[in-house]
Amino acid sequence: MKRSPSEWVLLVVLLGAGASAALVSEAGGLPVLAYRGLALAFLVATSAFCLQVFLYRPERVDLWILFLFFSVLFFSADGIVRVGALEGALSANRFRHGVEALLLLALGLVVSCATYRAVAPRDPTGFVKRSICARIQTVRPMLVILLAGTIWGIRAYAASRGLVISHARDVMVSAEGWTSLLIQLGSLARPLLFFLGAALLFAQGRFRRGLGALVIAGELGAAAVGARRLFLEVVVVVSLVYLWSGRRPKATQLAALAGAAVLVGAIVWPFMFQLRTAADQTGLYWADPNDRFQILVYDTIPTAFATFRLGETLQTEGAYVGNIRERASTIEFLIEILAAQHAGQEPMGGQVIGTALVATVPRLLWPGKEKLLNTETWQAEELIQSHFGLPLIDTGSTVLTQGYADGGVLGVALYATLLGVFLGLCEQSLRRSRCTILGLWVFGLGALLAIQIEANVTDIFVIGRAVAPLLLLDRLAGRTLEGWLTSRPRPNSTRLRLRTA
Question: What is the DSSP string of 299-352?
Answer without folding.
Answer: IIHHHHHHH--HHHHTSTTSHHHHHHHHHTTTTHHHHHHHHHHHTTPPP-TTHH
